[in-house]
Design a protein that fits this description.
With about 200 residues, this protein is mostly beta strands. It is globular and about 50 Å long. The relative contact order is 0.18.
């Protein structure tokens, strides 16, 4: 199988945010799986890696916001929300480009064209991920900038990898390099949590 076929699927990129039930912790992560599943009732689904702190918060509280990234988004927002873990850093400490929506959860404002708020009605265990199906409780349009697709991110936002003499495998998402002749099929990137399918051999 040519794994590159998976990259031809059209999907967007989003900052998923949540807040703990006691209000003591805000967090967010990058996801690429958010879709409307029904219009009546108005529902969306999101899939979240269980390794993410945001996953645990949504499992606890059942509420979240999806900030839809636009083509104006800079790599810094992907690095900030995607390449570090909320278990070790406070991603919203002194973060200026956000405000709280009606559900009290942050919405990202820079490089974002709209947001959707959700309240979970069902969870589906997918092994490494959980699918949360949620009623849409709120939403807003920030501007008319085109939404960023995964393909657009790869071609126009993500920095091109630097040349290296290291033998191994490079993560196509964040650039992390795994040194070795073969990459384990079950390898998970320690930086962005993507699997072996998102690595390319350094030649």
């Amino acid at each position: 199988m040519n794994k590159e076929a998976m990259y031809k699927l059209g999907y967007g990129l989003y900052v998923l945010t949540a807040k703990t039930g006691d209000g003591s912790k805000d967090n967010g992560c990058i996801i690429n799986t958010a879709i409307q599943v029904t219009t009546t009732p108005n529902r969306i689904s999101i899939c979240v890696n269980k390794a993410n702190l945001t996953h645990d918060i949504i499992h606890e509280t059942g509420e979240f916001n999806v900030s839809i990234l636009s083509e104006k988004a800079e790599f810094a927002v992907f690095r900030h929300f995607g390449f570090q873990t909320g278990r070790e850093v406070d991603k919203f400490a002194d973060y200026p480009d956000a405000y709280r929506s009606n559900n009290g959860i942050y919405v990202i404002t820079k490089g974002v064209n709209a947001f959707i708020s959700g309240k979970v009605v069902q969870e589906v265990d997918l092994g490494t991920h959980t699918m949360f199906i949620a009623d849409v409780t709120d939403g807003g349009v920030l501007n008319q900038d085109p939404s960023a697709t995964y393909s657009y991110y790869q071609s126009n936002i993500k920095p091109k990898p630097a040349k290296t003499e290291t033998k191994g495998w490079r993560c196509k998402i964040c650039g992390y390099i795994y040194e070795g002749e073969t990459l384990p099929e079950d390898f998970i990137c320690p930086v962005c949590k993507h699997g072996a399918i998102d690595f390319e051999e350094i030649k």
